[in-house]
Amino acid sequence: MRKEVPTYRKKGLFGRMKALFRNPLNFSAEVRQELGDFAKVDLGFRTIYLVSNPAAIKHILQTNNKRYGKSPAYEQLKLALGNGLVTSKGDFWRKQRRLAQPSFHKKRLEELFAGMVEETSKYLERLEARKDRESPTDICEEMAKITATIVLRTLFSADNKANLKLLYETINEAQEYVLYRTNYPFLIPFCYLNGRHRKFKKQLKVFDDIIYEIINQRKESTEQPADLLSMLLRARDEETGEGMSDQQLRDEVITLFVAGHETSANALSWAWYALAKNPAVKMKLRAEIAAVLGDRMPSFDDLKALPYTKQVLAETMRLYPPAWVVGRESLAADEINGWPIQKKEIFLLNIHALHRHPDFWEDPERFDPERFAVENVKTMSRQSYLPFGSGPRMCIGNHFAMMEMQLLLATLVRKFDFTLSDGHTVTGVPLIVYKPKGGIPVHITGVQS
Ligand code: HEM
Q1: Which of 6, 12, 378, 397 could disulfide-link 35, Cβ–Cβ 3.0 to 4.6 Å?
Q2: What is the pLDDT along the chain (449 residues), one digit of tens a residue?
Q3: CA 297–ligand 1 middle distance (angstroms)
Q4: Atom nearest to 401 CA in ligand 1
Q5: How many domains does the chain divide into?
């Protein structure tokens, strides 16, 4: 039976727009409280659906995914990422996904793991030097640096360290501009007048030059290190035998870098925050690591023997999902759970709210890794936990991310304590990823044995 979609009509048109752009998470919470987990908001130029209903999310991302494409916000990302896996569509995306998928199979990840361990060992030494300082360290900045180092290492091995540093800095600056355009689309015309767009174009040229140089050098070299670039260079389409063009390689490499480091960095930052707030969890985590690893660095196979480490990460991403929202647009008329849907409507699938949905999570605000213990996962509603998305566009790097985060969490927690700095309240802010506003200042000390 057809139902009417609950519609939010308060605040006036501009008030609704302002509230949504200012803090989409707070505005969604307000709408949900009043109208439930499937509601729409009229913004004049568009109708936006705010969705945290698991059945509706499953319908959009999985069961009926062909009727829903990526939302227009992804077009802004194209400015920097080009036509890579995150932003491309249709047959082109399908072909690229087929080409890239084998690089993320277990065997390939095992090859990448050695480089991750090497970078982590170097990082542990650097962190050792930061111990016992009086001034606080922003753990978010630290996690951003180490995850960027790891993803650059797994993409390009050791090719030209100075260039990789420049690449990292330029991408970060360029990303700020893309984020600005995504959050304030109505201010885009000013960027063409005040020089901001021109500056961005220059940054784009810097990182394009670096990446094309790396690609060319690699093509000419007889050595093919075990990294993602070699894997992507070797990838051939099963049907046509074709590989990727240089431009395509550039787009995929930038996409993997951007998609693959801020997400993991923020998940880890939130994990340190949650552990600082929950000392009993930290003790249990250390006990598992001491029993399985002692003082040695983990091997790829050890990761399976660290289930509690995984549970801590899973629970962290429940409460603080880095990809807090997934955007879609309806490509045709449809019906979801009896609700009529028109073509060209926007859907904000609110993963943050889904993960705290009171119908599916008991005491949802409580941090409790036991929710993800094997015996509890059996009875968990799978559709109410989607940190890596779902359906054909699900994250290609989910196993990569889990192995990197397990490695970093396990090796850092046994050596260091991160104590939250007094006088700073940690709150989340929903940018492209869900981040702690103003970072998380901590004091780093060694673990007392
Ligand atoms: C904690 C870490 C991560 C989280 C929470 C995360 C989350 C997500 C989510 C929710 C999506 C789906 C977006 C959508 O449906 O619109 C996605 C897609 C994607 N992610 Fe991740 N991701 C993480 C780490 C990574 C890593 C490490 C990589 C690569 C090294 C990566 C590469 C990608 C790519 C390429 C896509 C697009 C896939 C496609 O559309 O075919 N991600 N990610």
Answers
A1: 6
A2: 678 999 999 999 999 988 998 899 999 999 999 999 999 999 888 899 999 999 999 999 999 999 999 998 888 889 889 999 999 999 999 999 999 999 999 999 999 999 999 999 999 999 999 999 999 999 999 999 999 999 999 998 865 677 778 888 888 888 888 888 877 778 899 999 999 999 999 999 988 998 899 899 889 988 888 899 999 999 998 888 999 999 999 999 999 998 998 999 999 999 999 999 999 999 999 999 999 999 999 999 999 999 999 999 999 999 999 999 999 999 999 999 999 999 999 999 999 999 999 999 999 999 999 999 999 999 998 899 999 999 999 999 999 999 999 999 999 999 999 999 998 999 999 888 899 999 999 999 999 76
A3: 27
A4: 27
A5: 1
Q: Is residue 105 part of a domain?
A: yes
DSSP states of 262-288 as a string? HHHHHHHHHHHHHHHH-HHHHHHHHHH
* Ligand 1 atom at minimum distance from 151 CA: 30
Q: Strand 7-8 and strand 38-42: pairing?
A: parallel
Q: Which atom of ligand 1 is nearest to the CA of 405?
A: 1
Spacing, Cα 101 to ligand 1 middle (Å): 12
| Ligand 1 nearest atom to the CA of residue 266, by list position | 1
pTM above 0.90, yes or no: yes
Nearest CA to ligand 1 atom 18: 395
Q: Which residues are 334's β-sheet partners?
A: 341
Q: Is 418 inside a domain boundary?
A: yes
Of ligand 1's listed atoms, the one at least distance from the Cα of 433 is 5
Q: Is residue 305 part of a domain?
A: yes
Residue 235, domain CATH: 1.10.630.10
What's the 389 CA to ligand 1 centre distance in angstroms?
A: 8
Task: State the Cα–Cα distance between residues 44 and 132, nearest whole angstrom.
Answer: 55
Is residue 268 one of the residues assigned to a domain? Answer: yes
Alpha-carbon gap, residue 153 to 121, rounded angstroms: 13
Question: Which among 312, 309, 347, 314 has a CA at the least distance from the CA of 331?
Answer: 347
Query: Using a 6 Å cutoff on CB, does residue 104 contact ligand 1?
Result: no
Nearest Cα residue to atom 15 of ligand 1: 393
In terms of Cα–Cα distance, which of 401, 410, 405, 400 is closest to 298? 410
C-beta 400 within 6 A of ligand 1: yes
